[in-house]
Amino acid sequence: MPDTFLAILSVRNEAGFLLEWLAHHRACGFGEFLVFSNDCQDGTDAMLDRLAEMGLVVHKRNEGPYDAQGIQFTALNRASDLPVVRRADWVLPLDVDEFVNIHVGDRTVQALTRALPEATAITLTWRLFGNAGIVPYEDKPITEQFTHAAPEILYWPWRSAMFKTLHRNDGSYGKLGVHRPREPRADRLADARWFDGEGRELDDKFKTTRIFSNYGQPNYKLAQLNHYPLGAMESYLLKADRGRAVHSDHMLGMDYWVERNWCVEEDRSIHAMTPKMRAELAALMADPVLAELHENAVAWRKSRLVELLEHEPYRALMGRLMMTPPARPVPPQAARYLTQHARRAQELSTKPPTKP
Fold this sequence. Notes:
Keywords: Transferase. By secondary structure, the protein is an alpha/beta fold. The protein has helices at residues 15-27, 44-53, 71-79, 83-86, 109-115, 142-145, 204-208, 233-242, 254-260, 274-285, 288-308, 312-323, 332-350; strands at 5-11, 32-37, 58-61, 90-94, 98-102, 121-128, 148-149, 163-168, 173-175, 182-184, 194-196, 223-227, 265-266. Helix 1 (15-27) crosses helix 10 (274-285). The protein is globular, with a radius of gyration of 20 Å.
C-alpha cells in the first residue's frame, strides 16, 4: 500500500490564496490535508467547511484558548491525536505562503522519498521569493507572479536557511512542530536518519534541535521550499494587519520585509508543476460554492486594504515599502563578522553565572 502524505496548515483570512495552495500540493502528491482556522473575516473558515464537505480536507476551528507559544503551536499540539494524523505515513506542517518544490522524478513528494529511501526526515530549506516591486494585489497565482528569489547560496541572515521537515510519522517524536518534530524519544533516535534537500545525511543535532540548514552552501538539489512571505505590497499591509503566524500580536514592519525581499536570481523551477496545478485549481473552481467564496474573499481583501490606508501607520508602511530597494547579499567577510558576534552572544547566554 503506498505511503500517505499529510500537509498541516493554519490559516486566518487566507481564502484568496487557499485554493492555489491546495491545488499545488494535491498536484505534488499530498493526499491528506488538515487545516486549522481562527478568527476569519474573509470566509476562509466557510471555504474550509465546503472543502471538508467535498472530502478534500479535514477542517478544525482553532478558536482558543491558546498555548503560551501562540496560535500555530496550539493547533499542532491539538493535531497529534486526530485520526487524520495518526493514519499518515509522512507529515509536513506548512504555511499558506510555502510551496513544496521537488526537483527529482515527477516532482512529487513520492519521488523525493524514493530518491532518499533511507530517510526518516527530510529538511526542505526555504528559498525566499521577494516582492520585485509589485504594488497591487491581484487575483493571480502567487507562484506565477513572483519569480525572483534569494541567491542559491546566502551567507546571511540565518533565517533565510530555515526549513520545514517532511518526516515519517513513526513515533520517533512526541509532538509536531512548526519547523521540525518535537519531543524526540531517546530510544528511537538511533534509528532516525535525517537528510537535507541536497541529499546529504545530517548530523545528530538535526535530530533534536536544529531549525535551519547550514548557510553558505547549496541546499536545493533534490528539493526546496518556495517561500513567498511578502507578496504584493498591498498584500503585505493585509499581512501586517493579520499579524505573524507564530506571534500574532507582533505587527509586521520593515525588519521582516528587508530580511525577506530577495530578488537577486530568477527561479521558475516550480512552473514545471503549473499544468497539474492549473488542472487541480480548475476542478476546485468548478464548484460554484468554492468559486463564490473565492470571489468574496478577493473582494474582502480589496475592501480591507482601503480601510487600512485610511490610517497613518499603514500609509506610512506602504510608503516605506515603495521607497526601500530589494535586499542585497551580505559578503562572506561581513557575514563572518555577524556570525562571530552571534556565537559569542550564544556562549554568554549559556555560560554559568560567576559567583560574587
